[in-house]
Structures are given as C-alpha cells and as structure tokens.
Design a protein that fits this description.
The two termini are about 65 Å apart. A hairpin with a 6-residue loop joins strand 9 (about 150-155) and strand 10. The longest helix is centred in the first third of the chain and has 24 residues, at about 50-75. The protein has three domains: about 15-175, Immunoglobulin-like (Sandwich), CATH 2.60.40; about 175-205 and about 245-309; about 215-240, no CATH class. It is elongated. It is built from six helices and 17 strands. It is an alpha+beta fold. The strands form five sheets. A five-stranded antiparallel β-sheet has the order 1-10-9-5-6. Helix 2 runs antiparallel to helix 3 (about 50-75).
Length: about 300
C-alpha cells in the first residue's frame, strides 16, 4: 500500500488553481529559454561555479514568476460573442466580442479565437470590460454550431501561451445569399395581371375606398349599397387602384435556376423585394406552403425556412 501525502491547501490557493479546461503551450521563445536553463544547470553541476548557480536560480525564478502571472492574468475573465440580428451568406457581417475582467488588476494580451468560424480578436488591456468588432464571412447558408471560444494569452514574457475554453450556447442562423431576379412590376388590376409563372398575385381586400361614382357595370362587389339604400340609385365605389394587389406567393418550383442553391437564392431575393414594396409574401415549395402575411417576424420565418431547406 502506497501512502500519498495529503497536505491541506489554503482556500486562496484552491481558488487560484480551480480553473478547469486550461491548457499551456510552450512557445518557441519558451523552448529556447528552457533549453538555455538546462544548459546553465548542467554547466553549474559540472563546474561547481557559484555564478552559474545564481544564474540558474534567477532563470528558474523568472520561469515561476511567468507561470504565476500568466495564470492570474486569465483569472475571472469572461467572454461573450454577440451576433447581429441578421447574418447573410457570403457577406461580411460584424459580430461583437465582449471581454469582462472581474478581478482587481487588468488583464493583458487577451486573444479570442474560434477556428470553425475564422474568428480572431486581440485585446491589449482589459480593465473591467472591453468590446471589439470582428467581421465574419459564412460561405454557406444554414445553422453554424460552435461549441466554444478559446481565450488565450502570452502574458507576461511570451514564453508560454495559456488558454481556456468558453462554452457557447447560441447557434448562428445564416440566411441565403440573394440573387437578383428581374420581375415586371405588377399591374394594378388583378384581371389584367399575368406576370411570371412563379409569382401568384392575389387580392387581399377591396382596397381603400376614396369615394363613390355612377355605376357603370363594375360588378356586384363594387356596388356601394349604403348609397343605394339612401338614394335609390346604383353607385360604385372608387377604389385606389394601387391597393388592389397586396399579396404574392412565390412558387419556388417554377423559378428558373440551374440548381437548388440558385433557386433558393432567387426566392430569397423575391421575398425581400416584395416585402420592401409592402406586399404580404408567401412561399410555396413542393407540398409545403407558407401563407402570405406581412411584418418583420413573418419575413424572418420565410428567411429561416429558406435557410434550412
């Protein structure tokens, strides 16, 4: 039976050494420094020269000081990655990187790194909090999952690189890249509207009534029945023509495209185009259909549908 010494550690030392998932990598300068220290140690042992022993003690003490301060430098450092509201494929998008330092003394030479999304941001000094902007470019649409951010530092002498991982909970949804589609402006009256085969315009209501006029065979739907009840003659509603067409359904299966990705990109452009024009936009893809609606939340629902196809 082997007995292992179990010396009680002070609480401050336990807190200091409690960082989980921390890694230390020896830089090139650190390897040179360690090699030089070993040579000085061998020379001191072989020659018995007191000056070499003093130099060896100084080198070892400096290495210990470097390890202590590099460990303290990353203590109580928190990092947050804040994405924008919309992230588009093949478009440089600004993300916010926020570093919080919750200890008394500043943190130096902090680097935030993530390989999967090509993120790298340096902070020279962080007293309490610092934020920076990094532009990321995503080559494909869909959901990007990143498990963690790596926070690392070479403080104080650059001999060693100490790092730890910060877990990420959020997923980044990347919308498709819009490809322009030339479409004819819709005519105001639905019965005259033909348009492209992949666009289906519908009337969402009678439009805004601007007044009444003498009835000239406009149809039962446009008869002003209140005026007929009062005056005993037929009058028709004067409707603002530009309000006839307010709904459009984009039929993705009929969009001319060489492949699926191009079809999705063109559908994205059409959704954005008609949303800006004030239309209630819907989507049809195979047997799946999203009814036309307006508003920012509905637009995000359409873009999410396209991003996840």
């Amino acid at each position: 039976m082997v007995l292992k010494p179990n010396f009680p550690r002070p609480k401050w030392l336990q807190r200091f050494l409690s960082k989980k998932g921390e890694k230390v990598r020896i830089n090139f300068g650190g390897k040179v420094y360690i090699g030089f220290t070993i040579l000085v140690g061998l020379a001191a042992v072989n020659t018995g020269n007191n000056i070499l022993y003093i130099l060896l003690s100084f080198l070892l003490a400096l290495m210990g000081v470097s390890g202590f301060f590099s460990r303290y430098n990353l203590k109580k450092v928190k990092v947050h990655l804040i994405p924008p509201n919309e992230v588009w494929c093949c478009k440089s998008t600004p993300f916010k990187v926020v570093v919080e330092n919750r200890k008394v003394f500043p943190a130096f030479l902090i680097e935030v790194f993530e390989r999967n999304i090509d993120l790298k941001k340096d902070f020279l000094m962080v007293e309490k909090s610092a934020e920076g902007e990094v532009k990321l470019n995503f080559p494909k649409r869909g959901v990007y999952k990143s498990k963690s951010l790596e926070v690392r530092s070479t403080f104080p002498f650059g001999l060693f690189e100490r790092s730890f991982l910060v877990p990420l909970d959020e997923e980044i949804l990347v919308y498709p890249k819009p490809i322009e589609v030339k479409v004819k402006p819709p005519l105001s009256k639905p019965r005259r509207e033909k348009g492209e085969s992949f666009l289906h315009f519908r009337r969402s209501g009678e439009g805004a009534v601007e007044g009444i006029k003498e009835y000239a065979g406009e149809g039962m739907r446009l008869i002003h029945w209140k005026a007929f009840a009062k005056l005993g003659e037929l009058y028709a509603k004067e409707v603002a023509e530009e309000t006839f067409l307010r709904e459009v359904i984009v039929d993705m299966d009929k969009i001319p495209a060489s492949d699926k990705e191009e079809r999705i990109s063109k559908a994205t452009y059409l959704v954005l185009h008609f949303s800006r024009l004030g239309y209630a936009v819907g989507l049809k893809y195979g047997e799946r259909e999203i009814p036309p609606a307006a508003g920012r939340e509905h637009l995000r629902e359409l873009l999410k549908f396209l991003a996840l196809l």
